[in-house]
Amino acid sequence: MKSGIPSLNLPADAGLPASGTTPAAGLQAVLDNLDALVYVSDFQTHELLYMNAYGRRTWGNIEGRKCWQVLQDSDGPCSFCTNHLLLAEDGTPNPPHVWEFQNQLDNHWYQCRDQAIRWTDGRLVRLEIATDITRRKQVELELQEAHQQAQAAALEDELTGLHNRRAFYEFGGQLLRHAKRHASPLTMVMMDLDYFKQVNDTYGHDAGDEALRQIARLLQNRVRESDIVARLGGEEFALLLPDTTMGEAIELTERMLEMLNELVIQHKGRSIRASASFGITRLIVGDQTLEDLMHRADRALYQSKDQGRGRVNTCSD
């Protein structure tokens, strides 16, 4: 197969072998020993004009073929082609464009350096130097996934899978700022299980953990994707409901209380029933932080406790 590299008319001091070797032959030796793909293609027709030995070993013969046929085995120009980024509006070359890409033909990751250069016949062509970075990228992606998993774990209650206290404050703060900015309703529900210590003392902590898991699923199944439901610790839960009026929050909470009263938790042949007290508040003028809402919701919650538990109370100011 012909190499396809034309005479480049390099200066005598280009750093190539001086005796018995032409500049073009020396340049060919350099390019063919690079551990990276180097190719040149026509801007208009996409015809491959040159490919070094690394590329030919990997993708085969280029003669009479276009870059998207050889490198992607596709039926037309690639949707991610960067040709439009390589030339300025006046037709002069832009600085090199460096990007990372996963080739769908071999599934390898490459760092690509694309540039418009002047070919030996005077026309501007596309030069790409693509270095295989698959090993580095795999490590990078594994580290990224591990970081995401660690971050998710830091925001998740290990026992119930709900958001934990940290997540409640982090995401709840975002909902609070959004509600204040757009003057939209926001309600908070605080929930505390009644006599939960007796469940642990009577049936054991395994039974208490199972009760918490089932109650968490009940709560999660009743809220929207936009809502936040979290276990703040122990037997205390909180819900933050954006675009929800006080009346809507009361209706939802009373339904949750009914479902809790109907819930029978089976554990090692024993039936465990649950009950909870609720406190509800809404965003009012002057609220600056989630704590402002939580203080009022807590007051309403303890009113429910004082009135005999297993009920819902509200506090609006």
From TrEMBL:
Classification lineage: Bacteria, Pseudomonadati, Pseudomonadota, Gammaproteobacteria, Pseudomonadales
Enzymatic reactions: 2 GTP = 3',3'-c-di-GMP + 2 diphosphate
Gene3D superfamilies, sorted: 3.30.70.270, PAS domain (3.30.450.20)
Name recorded for this polypeptide: diguanylate cyclase
Cofactor(s) in the UniProt record: Mg(2+)
EC top class, as a word: transferase
CDD domains, sorted: GGDEF
Source organism of this protein record: Marinobacter vinifirmus
InterPro entries membership: Diguanylate_Cyclase, GGDEF_dom, Nucleotide_cyclase, PAS-like_dom_sf, Rev_trsase/Diguanyl_cyclase
PANTHER family named among the record's database cross-references: DIGUANYLATE CYCLASE DGCM-RELATED, REGULATORY COMPONENTS OF SENSORY TRANSDUCTION SYSTEM
Recorded GO MF terms: diguanylate cyclase activity
